[in-house]
């Protein structure tokens, strides 16, 4: 959960996640939908899927792996996590190298390297491994990580409080923050989407997200290409998937949402539907029976906000619903 996410965000969710899935076996026996629902809003959903798959491997083996190789074989476990678990839980003398450790080592040795480049990581793993003691490897790894997080910070390292100061080449240079070199920035990609909210008796119409995170619920949402009008894209997109005509289309807000190097701009509308289509073969689910839309097509649901919380969804859906409550109702 802490990969790519801050402690402040995780600490509110970790307890709840553990209460819901107290052991690897509980997690293994849960459905993916339940795991993704509990992960909703944390982003990087591949982590949740991998954690779930890893729990299933552990449950199938009936034991938690206690070797570096066994840990590396689990889905979603890379060299950093395997080394961290191996050293902290089992005392295996393996260096755990994250971004903080890379920074500390580059400064200590005076390396002006690109911290994201693969050859930098390979070189620093060797450097880090040479420093790991035979006993207390877990404490050592945690100490270096904490030093990087709390003392040897990216912009304003506190060299006066650092136990490595006398050995540190970057501190001796007088400009420790110049180490390592600034990484090459990836140019963000801009993506324009149009989204629409349909409300029926205090419920919102939702579809399965085919675009951002598969398996999540989303309001109807479609990509807008250069030169296209968002309202037309929404109208045509909804008519294509629901076979119902769009009416009373009204702009609500323009939202911005970032995921890794993607910058989404979302034109948000509300709309109504003209004439419901004839009944289809699927029977309505319990929470859809009171819906005034008879027999919504498969993969289209009507849910209240409290029902949405029990289904997998991302941060963008929460932003959409907040903007709609504020400006669209
Ligand atoms: S002396 Fe300064 S630059 Fe060197 S490791 Fe410590 S905090 Fe970082």
Word description of this protein:
- This protein has two domains: 7-178, Hypothetical protein, domain 2 (Endonuclease III, domain 1), CATH 1.10.340.30; 189-328, Nucleoside Triphosphate Pyrophosphohydrolase.
- It is of the alpha+beta class and 329 residues long.
- A four-stranded mixed β-sheet has the order 5-1-7-6, with helices on both faces. Strands 2, 3, 4 and 8 form a four-stranded antiparallel β-sheet that branches.
- The protein has 13 helices and eight strands.
- Helix 3 crosses helix 4 (45-61).
- Residues 277-297 have low confidence and may be disordered.
- It is globular and about 75 Å long.
- The chain has helices spanning 7-20, 24-29, 32-39, 45-61, 68-72, 79-90, 99-109, 118-131, 137-151, 169-173, 230-242, 305-308, 315-328, and strands at residues 189-197, 199-200, 203-208, 217-218, 221-223, 246-259, 262-273, 300-303.
- 42% of the residues lie in helices and 16% in strands.
- The site of iron/sulfur cluster has 15 residues, from helix 7 and helix 10.
Hetero groups: iron/sulfur cluster
- Detail the poorly predicted runs: 277-297
Order of helices and strands: HHHHHHHHHHEEEEEHEEEHH
Rg for CA atoms: 25 Å
Biggest sheet features: 4 strands, mixed
Instruction: Please identify the top-level CATH class of the largest domain.
Output: Mainly Alpha
CA(first)-CA(last) distance? 35 Å
């Amino acid at each position: 959960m802490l990969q790519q996410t801050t402690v402040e965000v995780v600490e509110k969710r970790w307890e709840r996640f553990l209460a819901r899935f107290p052991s690897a076996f509980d997690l293994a026996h849960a459905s993916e939908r339940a795991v993704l629902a509990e992960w909703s809003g944390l982003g990087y959903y591949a982590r949740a899927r991998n954690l779930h798959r890893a729990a299933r491997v552990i449950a199938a083996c009936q034991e938690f792996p206690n070797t570096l190789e066994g840990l590396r074989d689990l889905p979603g476990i890379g060299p950093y996590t395997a080394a961290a678990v191996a050293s902290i839980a089992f005392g295996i003398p393996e260096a755990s190298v994250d971004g903080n450790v890379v920074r500390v080592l580059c400064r200590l040795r005076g390396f002006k390297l690109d911290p994201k480049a693969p050859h930098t990581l390979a070189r620093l793993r060797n450097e880090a491994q040479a420093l790991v003691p035979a006993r207390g490897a877990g404490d050592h790894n945690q100490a270096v990580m904490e030093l990087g997080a709390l003392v040897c910070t990216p912009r304003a390292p506190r060299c006066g409080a650092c136990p490595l100061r006398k050995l540190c080449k970057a501190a001796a240079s007088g400009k420790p923050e110049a180490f390592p070199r600034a990484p090459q920035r990836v140019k963000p990609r801009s993506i324009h989407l149009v989204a629409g909210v349909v409300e029926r008796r205090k419920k919102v119409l939702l579809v399965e997200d085919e675009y951002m995170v598969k398996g999540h619920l989303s309001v109807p949402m479609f990509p807008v290409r250069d030169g296209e009008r968002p309202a037309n894209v929404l109208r045509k997109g909804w008519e294509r998937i629901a076979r119902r005509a769009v009416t009373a289309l009204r702009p609500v807000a323009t939202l911005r949402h970032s995921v890794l190097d993607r910058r989404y701009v979302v034109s948000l509308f509300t709309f109504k539907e003209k004439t419901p289509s004839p009944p289809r073969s699927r029977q309505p689910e319990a929470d859809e029976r009171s819906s005034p839309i008879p027999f919504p097509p498969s993969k289209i649901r009507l849910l209240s906000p409290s029902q949405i919380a029990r289904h997998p969804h991302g941060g963008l859906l929460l932003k959409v619903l907040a903007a709609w409550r504020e400006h669209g109702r």
